[in-house]
Structure formats: C-alpha cells, structure tokens
What does this fold into?
Amino acid sequence: MSGEDRRAFFRGIARSAAEMAGPPPQPLPEADSPGASGLSEAEVERYSRQLVLPEWSEQAQLALRGASVLVVGAGALGSPVASYLAGAGVGRLGIVDSDDVELSNLHRQPLHFTPDLGVAKALSAAAKLRFLNPDVVVEPYQARFGAPMLEGADLVVDGSDSFATRYEVNAACCAARIPLVEGGVIGLSGLVMAIRPGESACYRCAFPEPPPPGAQPSCAEAGVLGPAAGVIGSLQALEALKLLAGLEGALLDAFLQVDLHDHGFLRVAVSRREDCPDCGAL
Amino acid sequence: MAAHALDVTDVTCPLTWVRTKLALERLEPGDELTVTCNPGEALENVPRSAAEAGHEVRVEGTRVRIVRR
It folds into this structure.
C-alpha cells in the first residue's frame, strides 16, 4: 500500500468513526440527574477526578458546561488547550485555524495524526475533540481569526503563532470585554498571561509594541520542541479553567515566563496602562 | 437543620466521596447528611475526606453522619 493509499484508508476509518460518533449531542436528559439542574450521573463519573478536588464543585462544573470558549489556533498550543478544555467539560468550543495539517506539524500538535495530512486543522481538531467528549459542542472555523467569532464567547484562549494575530485578538477581546488567556512558545521557552479586560493588564499593557519585523523569529524559523509547547498550552488551559470556574490564583496583572532549559518559572508583575490603546479607555 | 440520606454502596472510590461531596454542596450549613457506605475503603475514605473538608463527622456502623460546615 502506498503512502497515499494508506492515508486515504486511515482517513476513511476516521471519517466512519466520526460519523458513528454522530452530531454534537444535545444536553443530557435530567432523568438520571441527582438534582433538577445538576449534573447527570454520567457527568459525575466523567468529571469525578476534578469534582473530587476541594477547589472544584458542582457549581464550577456547571459553569464550565454553560461556557463558550474560542480557541484561536489548532496547533501546538491549541492542541493541548482544546483537549484539556473539552476533557474538562466546557460546553462549547470554537476552534479557529485557516491552515491544513502538514507533516512538519505533527511533532508538536497532538490533535493531528499522520492520516490527517492535508485536512483542515480546524476540522481535524474538531473530530478528535468530539471523540474525546461528545457532550461538548465543537464548532470549527476554517478561517483566520476575526472579531465576529467572539459572538457569544465567554473566554478566548489564543494559541496563534504570530504577533500580528496576538495583538489583533487582544484588541478584539478588550473591545468586547471578553477574558483572554494569551500564550506563546518558541524553542524551549514560552509565556502565559491571563487577562480580564478593564480589570487587569492586557497583553498590550505588558508588551506595548510588537517586536520589529525580523527581530523575532517565527516558530517555523526558530523551531520548537513539542513538549515545551505542551507545557505552555497546558498552563493556558489551566488558567482558562480558573477564570471560567472562578478559582483563585489566576495569572492576572502578571505574565509567567517559562524557560524549560533550566526549568525556570518567573512570574513578572505588570500593571494596566492608562494610555493603552486596547484597554486604556475601558 | 434538615436531615438527608445518601447511599454510596453501589459505587467505589473516588465516586463514593464525589457523590458525598456533591450532596453536601447542595445542603445548607448545619444540615446533616447520613451516608451509607460499604465496609472497607468507602467507610475509611468518606469520613476522612469529610473531616479534611472541615465537616463534623460521626461514624455509626456503616453509616457516616456528616454535619455540613
């Protein structure tokens, strides 16, 4: 079997399996719910290892179920972000990516497999996420990020790979006052920041100007180790859960600088800027 | 103070405590929840977890009486 045949074969299997999994399900019937508006028995079991945490509660789980999160980028950061948020029980996930899966993506983007080569990343990611948790409504956007996608979103997690998109997402989230978790990774280093527009410093408060063109190598030019992206994306997912469930300790008015060469985690405090063009007027 | 009952003999750890924890979350402070446990793991873990969460706990046979804090 040639490589192309093998890919087509696996793609067929994946498609059949996705069809078997069916459309995104409607909310579960409440017949087996312990409480009228509470979690079903199946949900209690699925989420038992987080429900058991002292920090977590049925209310936190219900807040997640009622939440809509937009994940910008279905790549190295978006893969762990979307996987953990779907697994945790976020009710609706929008997945934004305009690219197709390429062979050079696979070492760091665990939502995509070799049979997905050539498939739109947003669709490839959505298929895996529906397998992971059929209770989550997954909406793929095979497009570049645009502010209209924020309609109905309670939170945005940015896993894009360019400064231009990052500033665009920050500005759009500030304008719509939607909480945002920013992230970036390159080589073995990265950065994470949680933002509540109008209440805490935004990405542009922390970094008023993007680096000049050519000063910052892109991930494609500089390279990145998959697990480093996994660490940063996982931290973003964690911050997203904290914001959605109202947990204490969100990374607000600060960014976390992570250097995995020597396992350095540095929390850098930042303040809102009155003259910030994105959030200063809020 | 209302009294409530819960039977967790049909599940195993950690669902025994998860079910108990969720039931307690729905009660008012001071309400009492009586949890029927299987001897062994559940009867050891449920009272311990409830005490660690700050609730008042009393074990009577296979019944764990928990007063929500």
